[in-house]
Amino acid sequence: MFIDSMTQLRYLSTDAYQFRQQAVGFLRFLVAAGATVLFTSEGSQEAPDEDLQFISDGIMTLQIQDYGRVLEVTKLRGSSFRKGRHAMRICDRGLVVFPQLVSSGSPGAAAPGRICPAGIPEIDELLNGGIESGTVTIISGPSGVGKTTLGLQFIKEAAGRGDRSVVYLFEEAVETLLNRCEGINIPVRAMVERGTLAVIKVDPLLYSPDEFANQVRLEVEQANVQIIMIDSVLGYKLSFQADDLIRNIHSLCQYLKGQGVTTLLTNEVESITGDFKATELGVSYLADNIIFLRYLEIRGQMRRAIGVLKKRLSDFEKTLREFEISRYGIKVGRPLTQLRGILSGVPEFIKSSDDER
Predict the structure, then answer these.
(1) Which residues are bridge partners to 76 per DSSP?
(2) pLDDT band at 104 (very low <50, low <70, confident <90, very high)
(3) Residue 120 and which of 12, 54, 208, 284 are 20 to 30 A apart at CA?
(4) Helix (H, G, I), strand (E, B) or coil at 220
């Protein structure tokens, strides 16, 4: 039996005590008759429903938040339940719930210790061979420095091994990305046509964080994806209006690590030159690896540099190298040992003994 709603019955009683007696007697009568009873209640400050919650065996709370409806189970006698607020949508399929992701804690299909190289010898030297499978890598740097391009380079190399990847775009249009990559020797369109890569544009304010996380879960569990790239963390936050960004992206990354999926996160920092920052949203602790890109001003020209700030599972090269994107792809030079103050953005040449003489 479904009663919609018990709140209306409250207004037929003279006081709260009488309503409580009537509600308890009514519900006990229905249960004694063998009925499973569901009822709705519209709790408010004027008409609180704690009395109804007390006599109930289960409580499901529905709320509306900035990004949509959420469902939370707060009580279920005689059984366990998944805690937390879970996104809910009412659509043409009916009522659909998107549970929060929980990491399985078990390794996925990727072999332990498997290395995912970039396919560029200089970058692989920086990373001691590449990044390990099942890890989280943050590619950090200011706007336009080449974060997405570098992430796609790892995906290009993975496609050559037959691994499948998915790129989620929060800022750039899919066609723009495809056309741009054709001009820098990264065959994204060909990878999409072969089925080794899916590029998905995430429309802002269309999904909740839990809906997006479940979309990622379906790709991983049904399509056997080995690499997930989120471009970018800032776009993720703005698209979902995610006030609790850290919790949402933490649970997603932990789930992907538990499945053995390699995760790439691009993170934009505001400063072009000046004070060096790895990230600005407090997500650096999530990363097993941090690769940073940096603008440099050298003799009046804007140049780029690449370096590795963090690598949990192995050693890495501590030097910085010049980074360039051309029509032939990514080019990385020798270590910039002749410069100092690179992280300031305005490096100086180190004078040698020959220069002093």
Answers:
(1) 58
(2) low
(3) 284
(4) helix
